[in-house]
Structures are given as C-alpha cells and as structure tokens.
Amino acid sequence: MVPRVLFVCLGNICRSPLAEAAFRAEADAVGLAVETDSAGTAAYHVNRPPDPRAIAEAARNGIDIAHYRGRQVTREDFFAFTHIYALDADNLANLRRIRPADGTAQLSLLLDAVPGRKGEPVADPYYGDEAGFAVTWAEVSAAARAIVAGLGK
Ligand code: 4NP
C-alpha cells in the first residue's frame, strides 16, 4: 500500500508546505512511492501560495513550491491519509479535537519521528525573519528522512 502522508500546521503557507516538499524529495530520492499533501488548521490562507520566504527556502534547496495552494484540513483527511503529522502541539491538539472517532489516519507530532527531538515543535517562522525558514527546512528535512526510513522498512 502506498503511504499517504499529510502535514498540518496553522496557516499552510510556511511550515507544512516545506514539510510536504522535503518529504516528497526524500521519498523520490530513495525511490519510495508516496502520496503527500499539506493543510492548515486555520482557514486564513486558503487558495493562497506559500509565504514568499518559504518559496525562497524551498528554491534554495532545489524545489519549486510556488504552485502549492493553501487549504484547510477536513474530516475526510482523517480517512484519506494513512499518516497525519502536526507541526506543533497546538496543531496536534486541534487535530485531536476535530478527528472523527472512526478516523483511520495515524496522528502524531512531526518531530516525534526524529530521534532526540520527541515532543518538540517545529517553531512558527511566520513572525520572524528569513533565517527562521532555514531552521524550519532543517527540521522538516530531518523528519522527512526519518519518516521515509521508517516507511521503507
Ligand atoms: P504556518 O505559519 O502555520 O507555518 O503556515 C503561519 C502562517 C500564517 C499565520 C500564522 C502562522 N497567520 O497568522 O496568518
């Protein structure tokens, strides 16, 4: 079965699009077939492209995410995806609150996938400067590598 992996942050314009891009790149690099997407718990940026700083960070890492568009997470996502990763504890709490009782997706905090980083958030770079996006990229890339390694077993 092809893993279907959804990454969820607040706005779906900074952290989760980068997580989606890093995960797709990592899966492609090892030849693992996956389906992936990202979404936000909030609806502020529905149909909007990623933050220009996120587009620039992905581009620095050789990936074009300019065509991504924001969307809000839906109850169907809990059935359509096999794994849902929350970028921080607030997003995880909100996902747990809206999760249908019979939802089938495995829900967890993203950095729980990374040895030594269990329980840590991917901090929101939205209100900071450009450098924050490089930190985000490093964190979501580490998680992407760990998730792909786990799925490939
Ligand atoms: P994200 O960052 O959750 O990583 O996409 C944010 C983007 C927008 C807002 C907050 C966080 N906002 O309040 O508009």
What can you tell me about this protein's structure?
- By secondary structure, the chain is an alpha/beta fold.
- It has one domain: Rossmann fold (3-Layer(aba) Sandwich), CATH 3.40.50.
- It is built from five helices and four strands, in the order βαβααβαβα.
- Strands 2-1-3-4 form a four-stranded parallel beta sheet.
- The longest helix is centred in the C-terminal third of the chain and has 22 residues.
- The protein is globular and about 40 Å long.
- The model has no long low-confidence stretch (mean pLDDT 97).
- The site of 4-nitrophenyl phosphate has 10 residues, from loops.
Count of runs of 4 or more consecutive helical residues? 5
Mind telling me the C-alpha Rg?
Answer: 14 Å
Please tell me what the overall shape is.
globular
| Spatial strand arrangement across the major sheet | 2-1-3-4
CATH superfamily: Response regulator
**Overall tally of domains:** 1
DSSP strand content: 5-15%
Proportion in helices: 25-40%
Describe the largest sheet: 4 strands, parallel
The secondary-structure element order is: EHEHHEHEH
CATH second-level architecture: 3-Layer(aba) Sandwich
* CATH hierarchy class name: Alpha Beta
Hetero groups bound? 4-nitrophenyl phosphate
| Unreliable sequence segments | none
Mean pLDDT: 97
Q: What descriptive keywords fit this protein?
A:
153 residues, alpha/beta, binds 4-nitrophenyl phosphate, 40% helix, single chain, Rossmann fold, four-stranded parallel sheet, 5 helices
